[in-house]
Amino acid sequence: MHNTGFSGCRRRKNCDIGARAAEHFSSLINPRNQFWRLLAALTNEDMLAVPYATRIDLLRKHHIGLWDVLGECERQGSLDSAIRKPAANDFERLRHRCPELAVVGFNGQAAGKFAPQFAAQGYRTVVLPSSSPAHAALSFESKLPHWQQLLRHA
User: Fold this and answer.
1) For residue 141, what is the domain's CATH number?
2) Does 124 map to a domain?
3) Which residue among 7, 8, 49, 136 is the one 20 to 30 A from 43 at the CA level?
4) Model's pTM, two decimal places?
């Protein structure tokens, strides 16, 4: 899975991620993937210099949770375009675990296809430019203002 749903959880500290999602998010360490660099800029925390578990603790400190929009899929390779048979993650479980969730951000257009489901349930949604190196048309400096919308909408 590579469709990453990034969600801001406010006032609730136990909005955490499942084991499969944890494996996926820790794989975002490709030095060309800007995911953790963007989150570091949003939180003013040095996410790049610490282990994955510490990164998650830092996100929790800022009331930010991570959730994979796909519960399962088939894919060969790492491109979103290679995803077949996508099945949405259990969003009711997310709602139950994070009842104060207000803003949901989606890392890229593929994940953003799920934004209407969240908007229909009353969440504010932000489809973000992908942090993936496969989407390098925008520089980090160009992506950052879009990602900062997450904090403005929270």
Assistant:
1) 3.40.470.10
2) yes
3) 136
4) 0.76
